[in-house]
Amino acid sequence: MAFWATVVVVAVPVLYVASFGPACWLVNREQVDCLVAARIYRPILRVAMAGTDIGRALCWYGDLDRPRNRAQTSIPMAGWMNFALSMYDEGDLETP
After folding, report:
1. More confident residue, 75 or 83
2. Nearest by Cα to 20 from 39, 34, 35, 41
């Protein structure tokens, strides 16, 4: 029983972080609402916007599969999600 509890305690955070990239990709393709994803990944977005090595790696991971046929921007997908989250926190956006 202790083995499976350890597996869950380790696997859930790893899967949460690993799912951040695909979530960014889905937001970028407008398959998932930006604000919904931003609220789910709020802790990761805070780290991504911190400017540390880990934050830059998270931004890179979120932009890894960015469609190349869209208008190019220097703002990473994590930045857009963080912006939406800030607007929501200020009351300028409503939950979809």
Report:
1. 83
2. 41
